[in-house]
Amino acid sequence: YKNGTGVAQDRAEAARLFRSASRLGHAGAQNLIGVYFMNGTAGVNQDYTEAAQWYRLTADQGNADAQLYLGNFYHND
User: Fold this and answer.
1) In this predicted structure, what is the pLDDT of residue 43?
2) Are 41 and 18 in contact (CB under 8 A)?
3) Residue of higher predicted confidence among 4 and 16
4) What is the DSSP string of 42-69?
5) pLDDT score at 9
6) What angle do CA 25, 31, 34 make, to 5 degrees?
7) Distance (Å, rounded) from C-alpha 67 to C-alpha 16?
8) Any residues with CB less than 8 A from the CB of 67 and at least 6 apart, and which?
9) What phi and psi, each to the nearest 5 degrees, are found at residue 9?
10) pTM of the model
11) 3-state class of 2 per DSSP?
């Protein structure tokens, strides 16, 4: 749903599915939810505190992208 490959693009549905995967511990989905909160995209309201929480959760699992985003988040704060 995120890119509309094989289905109609629906970013809100994509965000819902990524949240479900995030709750199950999927680091990539957790990172993407952090991006959604940071940017206020895919039907998610911008919330820097929530973004930082998702970045921290996935960074602690070793996700390099989240580690970078979290570092940038604190650097620019």
Assistant:
1) 82
2) no
3) 16
4) TTPPP-HHHHHHHHHHHHTTT-HHHHHH
5) 76
6) 115
7) 23
8) 59
9) -65, 130
10) 0.80
11) coil
Joined together, the tokens standing for residue 3 give 């890119």
**C-alpha distances in Å from residue 37, one per residue of 5, 6, 7, 8, 49:** 23, 26, 24, 23, 9
What is the Cβ-side half-sphere exposure of residue 66, based on CA atoms within 13 angstroms? 24
CA 19 – CA 13 distance, rounded (Å): 10
User: Which amino acid, residue 50?
Assistant: E
Q: Which of 76, 75, 37 is nearest to 55 (CA)?
A: 37
Summarised one tens digit per residue, pLDDT across range 14-72 is 888 888 998 898 998 999 999 989 999 888 899 999 999 999 999 999 999 999 988 98
